[in-house]
Amino acid sequence: MDRPAGDVDEGMDAPTLLVIGHETDPGVVPVQAGTLTSWAAERGVRVVPAVLAGTGPTAPLPDPAAVDAVAVLGSVQGAWDDAVPWLGAEIAYLDAVIGAGTPVLGICFGGQLLARVLGGRAEPASGRREHGWQEIVTAAPEVVAPGPWMEFHFDTFTAPASSEVLATSARCDQAFRQGAHLGVQFHPEITPAEFDLWVARWTGTPLEERLPELGVDPVALRAETVARAEESRAASHVLFDAFAARAGLVTRTAA
Length: 255
Description:
The structure is a single chain. By secondary structure, this protein is an alpha/beta fold. It has one domain (16-191, 230-247): Rossmann fold (3-Layer(aba) Sandwich), CATH 3.40.50.880. It is 31% helix and 24% strand. The protein contains eight helices and twelve strands. It has helices at residues 29-32, 35-43, 87-99, 109-117, 192-202, 206-210, 218-227, 229-247, and strands at 16-24, 46-54, 69-72, 104-107, 121-124, 130-134, 137-138, 149-153, 155-158, 164-168, 173-178, 181-184. Strands 2-1-3-4-12-11-10-7 form an eight-stranded mixed beta sheet, sandwiched between helices. A two-stranded antiparallel ribbon has the order 5-9. Strands 6-8 form a two-stranded antiparallel ribbon. Helix 5 runs antiparallel to helix 7 (218-227). The protein is globular and about 45 Å long. The protein starts with 15 loop residues before the first strand and ends in an 8-residue tail after the last helix.
């Protein structure tokens, strides 16, 4: 049974990672979180799934001080777009999380939002959009492997001036770190099951009609995602371990 997002037991030994999804419900968040979910299981981290903007009623998010870290996943909305009805509440929550000293991992939309909250920028990508498996240039291969990594974004971020840029592509910043916080533009968590969620979300929407224009063949991209699943999982676990080490999140290592 899913635990309501606002209910985090005190006194449990396992460190807790609040994982915030969007346009879904808490039961789907572990699939949306992909390899982050399997990483957490291997490292003895308890995932608390939550949504702020979901497909049904949402539970209150927990006190930021009651969890050990927070991960913010992707969204079809723009982290720059103040017209999004729930965005102000999520920004306020992340402000409180950061104020409480709780580390944040931001992925795609989550990375854009983290950059914005920390003083950088989130903005439409325009000509800097990237879709599919892409190579990146890394300044910290012990955190971000050269790739390829899955990209699928119409928006992007400019890393905060006070942060350390860990990776870039020819089009935009790809990863930054500020203290214990880590934001990435790509999708380290991607799995074939998560990709299937993306395709289901695209079906019947204007984006589905635009896929050929974007050079995206969903069948071919899924096949590539399946073929790259193991190397992608391994690279993502290195990245999550690096985040966890700075966040003080992991209490034991995988066997």
